[in-house]
Amino acid sequence: xxxxxxxxxxVSYVVDGDLRPVSNCHCSRCRRFTGHHMAATGARTEQxxxxxxxxxxxxxxxxxxxxxxxxxxxxSLFWRTTARPDWLSxxxxxxxxxxxLVTDSAWWMVEHADxxxxxxxxxxxxxxx
Length: 129
Ligand SMILES: [Zn+2]
Ligand SMILES: [Zn+2]
Fold this sequence. Notes:
This protein has one helix at about 30-35; strands at about 1-5, 10-15, 20-25, 40-45, 50-55, 55-60, 65-70, 75-80, 85-90, 105, 125. By secondary structure, the chain is mostly beta strands. The chain has one domain (about 1-95, about 105-110): Metal Binding Protein, Guanine Nucleotide Exchange Factor, Chain A. The chain is globular. The mean pLDDT is about 95.
């Protein structure tokens, strides 16, 4: 069972299922939301249980998608889309260590920052993976 939280603890959660390998998303929205690039794992929504979510807020740049963050400490936490309501993407850095996960792919490479150093061994996609 994996657990995670934001920096201040206002949002904390446990996942009672398997987490998918980590994917990096370099799209400009994820870049600005996370401050670098999204490194996201994910799980079925029904398998994510909140011990605390009092400071969790959602930002929707468009109706179909939303980014979850902590309104107190500013941690980037989640991403979701109405195209896949049963799935919650989880910013991997919020998980308690060790996660046992590996990064397997990079998405939206067409928008990666010019300072970004590409990692060998990742399956790269120009857009969505
Ligand atoms: Zn917080
Ligand atoms: Zn993205």
